[in-house]
Amino acid sequence: MLSNKILWFVMTMILCLAFCGEIVSATEKSVDYEAISAQIARDVEENHIPGMAVCVVDKDEVIFEETYGNCISVEQPFIIGSMSKSFTAISIMQLQEKGRIDLDASISQYIDASEWFINPTDSNEITIRDLLNQTSGIDTYQTLGKLERTDSYGTHVYANANYGLLGLIIETVSGMSYEDYVTENIFNPLGMDRSAASLEKAKDNGLIEGYRNYFGIPVAGEADYPEAIHNGTWTNVPAGYISSGCSDMGKYLQMYLNDGEDIVNEESIESVLYDNVSVNNGSYYYGMGWMYSEKMYSQPILWHAGLVENYTSNMFILPEEGIAAVVLANMNDYLVTNNIIGNIINPLIGEERNDLPDLYLILHGVIDVVCILLCTLSVYSISRAFHCKNKERTLKATVLDIMVYILVPILLLCIPFMVNTPARVLWLFVKDLCIVIYANATILILSGVCRMIFYKKETNAELN
Fold first, then answer.
1. 38 with 55: CB under 8 angstroms?
2. How does pLDDT run across 94-117, given as a tens digit for each residue?
3. How far apart are CA 111 and CA 234, in angstroms?
4. Is the Cβ–Cβ distance between 324 and 246 less than 8 Å?
5. pLDDT by residue (tens digit) across 231-263?
6. What strands, in cross-sheet order, belong to the sheet with 284-287?
7. How far, in Å, CA of 426 to CA of 415, rounded?
């Protein structure tokens, strides 16, 4: 009787294990990384992305890792853009754990505000936590040395200057350069051997060449890598110019999945990820180099994107799923490529892919046609500039001259104001359009001046 019960128990356990094995197998097969990888390869080709690297990890291992295009290795570094902000936040939390800074203390306790603010007293109200959550009142395009606290204080406004100031605080408190600090306290302990916080070191590590998009054509060239923080600085390394490969970034993301490992404690990880502030009436939340939403996907997600002149990136953590992913690309394409990263990442994190129409040629084609029309107008304006006779001064001709030589160039020069972006920032990210805009505006204005001079000479000649 007892032996029958034992036999029944053993058979039941075998069946249960077999059934569990089927469940596990089905779960593993639910994400077909081979098919996903093939789709990513097509996306890279169709959107003319020179190179890409992708990595998916859980807390213990690498689940998926692959390179595409001219990326030769999962270790090859890219400039990761604003994903750098999370490294700066982790550095701040390390110093906070050591009791060397207080997140709620005024930043004027740690740096000389008179060097960076128009009115040094502005910094008395700004705390380190304000900088981390970007609620300092500093506006998006303010530059260091000309900072001022605006009426937006307490509300999230994304600004690179916030993290530039945090980088300065790290240097002041630690007595080390920002580069040395993150290398010694984050990169080295995590085994991120191909990560760097300087251009020279990034190149030594084999930095993949970046590409800007000129009129729909990827063109290789260096990023406008920032110098050390100084007066007039807008971009800066702590806010956006760390370099890393997808293999190193996988190790970095695993640190979060493992509650900080030996880098920071679990409480600090919780603060970095969840001590956040509302953005757009709660559509998502921003906190310490990470964004958080419970609405964007079928489950809660943490993420942060990165974008510099010729690199694009994005990283994600699914806290309930216990997985994280990163995508790195070596091109900045303002029309198409920058918008497909989410589409690439969706299947990797178990979300449905939103198939988008192939808009690369269409959108770039439309922009190119507009640019050609502007250039044609400029050539036409030059031809008219020296063919002006008094008898031709009809109302129609006068209206045409006003449009060509005055209204169009004014419209072109006002584009930065219309898109609420300074010309210096547009120049960093869309050099091709800036060349067209300012070259044509200059030609039209000069042609108009020449036309006025020539018309005056013709008029004087006729009078004489």
1. no
2. 999 999 999 999 999 999 988 999
3. 18
4. no
5. 888 999 999 999 999 999 999 999 999 999 999
6. 62-69, 51-58, 323-329, 311-318, 301-308, 290-293, 284-287, 277-279
7. 10
Measured CA to CA, the distance from residue 231 to residue 454 in angstroms comes to: 46
Structural domain boundaries in the chain: 1-30, 33-348, 360-463
Rounded to two decimals, what is the model's pTM? 0.86
Q: Pick from 375, 378, 386: which is nearest to 452 by CA?
A: 386
Q: If you count them, how many residues does the chain have?
A: 464
Phi, psi of 380, deg, nearest 5? -60, -40
- The C-alpha atoms of residue 64 and residue 52 are separated, in whole angstroms, by 14
Q: In whole angstroms, give the CA distance from residue 337 to residue 27.
A: 31
- At 247, the amino acid letter reads S
CATH superfamily entry for domain 33-348: DD-peptidase/beta-lactamase superfamily (3.40.710.10)
Give CA–CA dist 86/97, Å, rounded: 16
Token pair of 146 as six digits: 């000309």
Give the 3-state DSSP-derived string for 96-146, with helices as H, strands as E and coil as C: HHCCCCCCCCEHHHCCCHHHCECCHHHHHHCEHHHHHHCCCCCCCCCCCCC
CA distances from 53 to 84, 246, 314, 397, 419 (A): 17, 6, 11, 57, 32
Q: Which two tokens stand for residue 61?
A: 């291992």
Query: DSSP of 162-218, one letter per residue?
Result: HHHHHHHHHHHHHSS-HHHHHIIIIIHHHT-TT-BSSHHHHHHTTPPPPEEEETTEE
Which H or E run includes 372?
helix 360-385
pLDDT in tens, 22-65: 333 333 446 788 988 998 998 888 888 999 999 999 999 999 99
